[in-house]
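Weekly modeling sync, notes
Attendees: AB, CL, MP (scribe)

Item 1: holo prediction request
CL wants a bound-state model with adenosine-5'-triphosphate before deciding which constructs to order. AB pointed out that an apo prediction alone won't tell us much about the pocket. Agreed to run with the ligand included and paste results into these notes for async review.

Input as submitted:
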Amino acid sequence: MKVDPSFQMPILNIEEVYKIYQSEKTETAALRGVSLTVYPGEKVALIGPSGAGKTTLVNISAGLLPPTSGKIFWSGISRDISRLSGEQIVRERRRFAGLVFQETKLISHLNVSQNVKLGGHLAGMEKEEIDDRTSMLIDLVGLGDRVKHKPNMLSGGERQRVAIAAALVTNPQLIIADEVTASLDPLTGEQILDVLDDINRELGVALLIATHAQQVASRAERIIEIKDGVILATHGSSIRLRDLAETRRLAVDNQNRISLPEDIMKLLGNPRSFRARLQGQQILLSIPEDELYEVEKVLTCSVCGELVDKGSQVCKNCGMVIT
Ligand SMILES: Nc1ncnc2c1ncn2[C@@H]1O[C@H](COP(=O)(O)OP(=O)(O)OP(=O)(O)O)[C@@H](O)[C@H]1O
Ligand SMILES: [Mg+2]
């Protein structure tokens, strides 16, 4: 049975993180004040469209990428990890998190067993412990009959299983994964997700998985929706990605800001301000009179919900005749 997360300390705590990528000519704000916590044993999915900031956020969570500002805490370390040296981060990460990415990085001349053991040796673990964990993990990911195979003798799904076992050899508390099923066919992807579920259930390891896929997100206990570098909302389990708007819970960041969903704003005619009134436990937002004039001009298609251009007779998205 899982313990209610609210009684526990988070194992990962991201506070107000900004990431600005700078090149000679452009600046891209990939994350704009993101805060996120993951509790022991939780399964969390990070979803959002391409360019939303998912990979940036998982890389920052894993200590692979420094934030422009903001803090990152891993359990067991009282200091913000972005203040640690590269060497210290590598050392602490072995104990804290295992990483699994879309393209698995296995060493081509090492066999399955040696690839899994490698992280244990680098972490300075005892040989006996490495051997025990390696055989337990290879069995858990279902590769008991492939221990001596080199990566080029394995299928994509099998290589991903090796990567998962290798990520777990140092006994981390969290698996951080980015698009783990993206390069696999749906059935193989499903089997990899089963392996991650087994690991979560049997070893109590928490999962933070960035994904586009409904298949992945629907298995999570908590789904965090990110767009344009801002966390829009958190959802409970078993949502369908296209029903996000129905299950939406808007996130409040550390400075009490809420990002209003784009579809709702569009429907309201993108007002630039609201009047806010407190009514019991509710905050009622209403559009000021001087902005209502703009709103009345907005017409949406009754079939697909697309905004209809002023004066147009036909929806440009679905072809519905507007009456
Ligand atoms: N190294 C980089 N230099 C400059 N801009 C970058 C860099 N990496 C990412 N970006 C930009 O930051 C934004 C977020 O990118 P990120 O890769 O985090 O998105 P994502 O949600 O993982 O997208 P996808 O679903 O396509 O993988 C995008 O606008 C992207 O172009
Ligand atoms: Mg990505």
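Recorded for review: The chain has a mean pLDDT of 86.
Action items: CL to compare against the apo run; MP to circulate these notes.
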